[in-house]
Structures are given as structure tokens and as C-alpha cells.
């Protein structure tokens, strides 16, 4: 009672190393087989996003955030852990945008200043170039969406629903309606939470940078980073 709900989840994407229940969901064999059939090779699970509020990340494709060697052998899954409403800032995407030309990381970084390329954020300890580039990437994508006539579609999910998207799909985290609730039973928590698990996968033959790997009891593969599992 009286505690603040940790709506931002684990501070890193490798928390699954110490949480077998999370791995059981992310590596569920029917899901892994479906991903393999869609991408064309067995998939390696390597990233879990556990925020229970919208990231409000602007429009992007996942591909340009990855090393170029992956070359779109990549997919992600949005898993609803509860009902997701429009007030919660749902996952939003543009159907058909996976056929658009690709953004490339090196080209995007070419428009950043030298200071932005060298900047290291104190909170994360790393350079956040994707965030800095939103000042010109977001307007460019919004103009492309407007000229295409394609709709922006929210994923208003019920508990247990999943959405699979390819790394070329334009998507974003919707804007969340602000507001917090305080009560004795559950402490302080968002008025409009977005309870979800987001999992990312690469083609297993396209991640030579992820050498350490393990398999679960069903033979499904996940990357190992030997991460310190501490909540922020």
C-alpha cells in the first residue's frame, strides 16, 4: 500500500534470462513455428519490452535500428496482457507500409550533428540517436502516410490477443491519456495502463553478433547476455 507502481517494467530488454515464465510465453512453440513460416528460418528471441504504459515512440521501422546484416530477417510480437483501450496509447501501424522503401540507419545518422552522434545519455549510458533523429524522421514519415492515403490503425486488443509485425512495417506507440490513481490496495498506478509484453526476434542465421545462445525444453532458441537482473 502506498507504493508507486513500476509502469516502465524492467530497465533492459534481456530480463527474460532470469524469468522462465516470460520465456515460456515468448518461445511458445506454435508462435515460433508461425514466425519461422513467415520469415523463412528459425527465429532467435533476443529482446523483451515490458513497459505497462505506452512508450509513445514516434513512427519508425525496426529495420533501420538493427545492424545492416540482419537485412529484414526480423519480426516482433505485441502480446496483450489485458484489454488495451484508445486512452492507453495503443500500438499503431500503417497497413501496407511494409512494402515501402527502407529507412537505413547509416543514412539517418548522416543527418545528425556531430554532437548528437557523440552524445551519451546519463540515464541510459548510451547514445540515443534514434530519438534525436525523430525531429526529421517523424515529419518525413507523416508526409509519406498522408500522401499514401493508407489508414493509421490502432491495435485495440483484448487480453490474450497478439499482433505480429515485420521489421519494415511503420508503427509507433500511441499517445497515452495522462492520469494516475492512488488507492490503499494497489498504491499509485496509471489511470490508463497498457499491460503488454513485446518480444523481438531475428532469423537465427542472421545474428552472428549474438554468439551466446540457449534453448528451452522445446528446442526454441534465445540469446544470452548475462545481464544483471535488477529493477529500476
| Secondary-structure element string | HHEEEHHHHEEEEEEEE
Output mean pLDDT. Answer: 92
Gross morphology = globular
> What is the rounded Rg?
18 Å
Helicity range of the residues? 10-25%
- What's the total helix number? 6
Distance between the termini: 19 Å
Report the structural category. alpha+beta
- Poorly predicted parts: none
Strand proportion? 15-25%
Biggest sheet details? 6 strands, mixed
- Biggest sheet strand line-up: 5-2-9-1-11-10
Strands, total number: 11
Overview of the structural elements:
By secondary structure, this protein is of the alpha+beta class. A six-stranded mixed beta sheet has the order 5-2-9-1-11-10. The protein has a three-stranded antiparallel beta sheet with strand order 4-3-6, with no helix packed on it. A hairpin with a 3-residue loop joins strand 7 and strand 8. The relative contact order is 0.30.
Which structural traits does this protein have?
single chain, 232 residues, alpha+beta, six-stranded mixed β-sheet, three-stranded antiparallel β-sheet, 6 helices, globular
Write the layout of secondary structure elements.
Elements: H1 20-26, H2 29-39, E1 43-49, E2 74-80, E3 91-93, H3 105-109, H4 114-118, H5 129-132, H6 134-148, E4 153-154, E5 162-166, E6 171-173, E7 180-183, E8 187-190, E9 196-203, E10 213-215, E11 221-223
Parallel strand pairs: 1-11
Antiparallel strand pairs: 1-9, 2-5, 2-9, 3-4, 3-6, 7-8, 10-11
Amino acid at each position: 500500500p502506498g507504493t508507486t507502481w513500476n509502469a516502465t517494467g524492467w530497465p533492459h530488454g534481456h530480463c527474460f534470462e532470469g524469468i522462465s515464465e516470460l520465456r515460456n510465453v515468448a518461445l511458445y512453440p506454435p508462435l515460433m513455428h508461425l514466425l519461422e513460416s513467415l520469415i523463412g528460418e528459425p527465429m532467435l528471441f533476443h529482446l523483451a519490452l515490458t513497459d505497462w504504459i505506452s512508450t509513445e515512440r514516434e513512427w519508425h521501422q525496426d529495420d533501420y535500428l538493427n545492424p545492416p546484416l540482419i537485412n529484414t530477417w526480423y519480426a516482433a510480437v505485441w502480446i496483450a496482457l489485458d484489454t488495451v483501450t484508445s486512452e492507453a496509447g495503443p500500438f499503431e501501424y500503417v497497413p501496407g507500409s511494409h512494402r515501402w522503401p527502407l529507412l537505413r540507419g547509416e543514412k539517418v545518422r548522416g543527418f545528425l550533428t556531430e554532437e548528437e552522434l557523440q552524445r551519451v545519455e546519463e540515464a541510459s549510458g548510451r547514445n540515443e540517436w534514434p530519438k534525436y533523429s525523430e525531429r526529421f524522421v517523424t515529419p518525413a514519415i507523416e508526409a509519406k502516410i498522408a500522401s499514401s492515403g493508407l489508414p493509421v490503425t490502432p491495435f485495440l486488443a483484448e487480453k490474450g490477443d497478439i499482433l505480429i509485425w515485420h521489421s519494415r512495417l511503420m508503427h509507433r506507440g500511441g499517445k497515452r491519456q495522462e492520469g494516475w490513481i492512488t488507492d490503499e490496495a494497489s498504491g499509485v498506478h496509471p489511470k490508463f495502463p497498457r499491460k503488454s509484453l513485446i518480444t523481438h526476434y531475428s532469423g537465427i542465421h542472421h545474428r552472428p553478433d549474438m554468439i551466446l545462445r540457449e534453448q528451452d525444453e522445446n528446442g526454441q532458441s534465445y540469446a544470452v547476455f548475462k545481464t544483471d537482473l535488477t529493477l529500476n
